[in-house]
Amino acid sequence: xxxxxxxxxxMPLPGAASxxxxxxxxxxxxxxxxxxxxxxxxxxxxxxxxxxxxxxxxPAAPESGAPNPDxxxxxxxxxxxxxxxxxxxxxxxxxxxxxxxAERRRMLLGIDWVKDATVSRxxxxxxxVRIVERTPVAFVQVAExxxxxxxxxxxxxxxxxxxxxxxxxxxxxxxxxxxxxxxxIRRQRVKRLLRVQQELGPPLMAKLxxxxxxxxxxxxxxxxxxxxxxxxxLGNHDFLPRMNNFIANYEQIRLRMADARVLDLRLKDxxxxxxxxxxxx
Length: 281
Known about the structure:
single chain; alpha/beta; Ubiquitin-like (UB roll); 2 domains; 7 helices; 13 strands
């Protein structure tokens, strides 16, 4: 009997292993859930600390128009500082943590003279705004649908700018833009104007008062030569050779076509008075 007893083995109950696995699963799930709740609670408390803490509040200027040492702006020349300040009107008097940086940047880009902008939080309670302004390349006469003309400035991207805040600019006048033009169309027109400027250079550009970009395949420039205003048709390429040819033959042109006001320079072997049969070879 003793020998039989020593050879007996103990077998686990059928449900014991699955019970322990279930217990570990439930325990792990509860622990994970409690961890998530704890993290969310801590995050909520931290966020509430940044929202309600008085040390994070962005102060407003002491009075209208006075400098605000906690709200700094850089890069403003043509852009009015009041325009920038107005973008952040809702942020003064509350925590800078609540300031929606991306949204404020988008609002700044809506100001006509602003090409790019960055907004930075400087803890605990300051904001720093850096502006990159647009560079005007020409005055522009914009033809309106009702027949009027709007006068303004335009930059290389075809963006129209308020001329009231720009002074002492020496720029050509561009004609050929309408109020119905899209920004892309204006950009193409400005691109052609810039090519004319680049090819002619400052000395010749100084003689021109107006550049007509209405027809991109036939650019017309208005210049004053020996007190006579004349419109020159330059086509769409070889702007400098055609201008040099005109200047080299100017005396002969004045003798043979004294009354000509529009000259076609596009032909290689002759300069023709538009509206007449006269030409200089």
